[in-house]
Amino acid sequence: MLMALILTGVVNSTTLGYDTMMMASLIAIDPFSGYFHLKPATTGLLNASNWMGGILACTFVAHLCDYVGRRVTIFFGCMLAFVGIIIQSASQNITMFCIAKIIMGIAIHMSGVAAPLLIAELAPPNMRGIIGGLYFTMFDAGAIIASAVSYGTGQINSTWAWRIPSIIQAIPSAITIAAIPFVPESPRWMVAQGHRQYARDALMICQGLDKENAEELVEKIHLSLKSTAPFAHQWRELMRPSRPMLRRILIILSFTWIVEMGGSSIGSYYLTILLQQAGISGSTKLLQINMISSCWNFFVAVVGAFTFDRLGRKPQSIISLTGMTACLFCLGGFIQKWGATSTNKSAQYATIFWMFLFNGFYSFCYTPMQTLYPTEIFPTRVRAAGTTFFQFWNCGFGLLASFVLPISMDAVGWKFYMINASYNIPFIFIIYFLWMETKNMTLEDVASRFGDGMNNAELIDSNEVQEKVSADQKLSSKNAILNAKVIASAKE
After folding, report:
1. DSSP helix/strand/coil, 340
2. In this predicted structure, what is the pLDDT of residue 370?
3. Which of 162, 163, 410, 427 has the most CB atoms less than 10 A away?
4. Please, are residues 187 and 202 in contact by the beta-carbon 8 Å criterion?
């Protein structure tokens, strides 16, 4: 069952990675760019359409996750993805293609909220970093597939050069739909619905707990939800935050800025533009480099997912952001000296090296952590809303990056990378002083570490439970002594 959970989660994120690299590859081939008459503004619009759909999804996905469950939301997202892929593959103009991308954005971000919730709430604490990290790591697996498919179809001199990659994008959603019946619903969501026995059984199977420990964890989850009606006031709690919740919100805002504005789009959506600035031209060569880059990113992201539970979230984030910043400074300097006007091929490929190294540092932490950290830091009663809050700002900054980056990269050239590196520096200190470590902790213990202690009523209930257990134990001891005396008297 745990393997089915991993399959459901990680395959689901493949769709977004496939979409990202498919677009990066398609804008480099004439059958696509010529058919839609692409310009910097329309290129930005195409890539921004996905983020627009994500923002629309944020208006309802938290309620959907909390009222129909995580599994059903994933299923709805996959079915909607089929609709978007059909329209995208049959597009006749730029408007039709953009509408399809908006629908795909809604579908991808519906699953992008629900699937990480399901993984975080089912996975054992000592494996949550690996499994949760692998979820978004499959983004790069999707990018590899898209690069290979686009490279193969890029030689076709017709619209099938981009229609075939669009159709193949449906495969990950089909695999997710096939795997979802074998995965249990979130035990924390089931406790909120009053199904404690189901939650206990799911925890026993997925986390390898015995019956006593599973019941103890279910009781702990129940107490954490008891102070308020579960899920009923989660948005009010986010909008009028307590001190612990305010810290979470600030963490999320800084995290989403790093994820989308720290330079990631340079190595994904706009990798083609970067390569052209470095002096690399020719659609075949650009597609080859795209594919190599995707393989490299995937390898490093898998390594990063397996080190979360060893290094910890904070140290890994600081290492990655420091490396990203240094690489951006070097990248800007190399483009300035050996850019498109240079005939020094060795220097041009040295420029590409800094881009690869930047992507490696980013993939080592921020690719696998995107769907892990937001689900860990929010308590159960607001976890869906908190994850949606992350997705909203992630989509917002992604939308901003989609519009701004191609224009900025074209307008200021190499200086763009220097500016990007400069505003990354303060976030290294923000991570160190503001972020919270969550390594090898249960989700309830993480909430307690933020300062979300149980209220007095919950403490009284908890004490009553402990007193009842103690009384039962004393009664059992007295009965055992009495039985021993009776047996001794009988023998005499």
Report:
1. coil
2. 86
3. 162
4. yes
